[in-house]
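Table 4 source record.
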Amino acid sequence: MLPHPEVAYQVIFDHVHAPVFFEKLAAYGYYPQHAGEAQELLYLAGQLRSAQEQEMVKAAAFSGSLPYDEPDAMMKQAAYTLAHEPAIYNSVLSLKALEAASVQAGLLS
């Protein structure tokens, strides 16, 4: 049975996104000093990502092309390594099933 999409998102965030983010920070020599600082950094990163995505959509609308953000090598390696973890694999399937249902609903309306 696949996890609920909210649980699936949290699994992927906790086991893929957050570790890759903190590995990137460590590569620049920065390590959060406590859990509160780590949470704040994750929040700020999310805000920056959202702003970046909005700019990509605006640019795509202006140019007529679709925005696509190529995953970096660290994210690709994490995805490859964790694809063999059942919790990660099932979480991705759960989110993809939700995405497919959303697309299908949009096509039927």
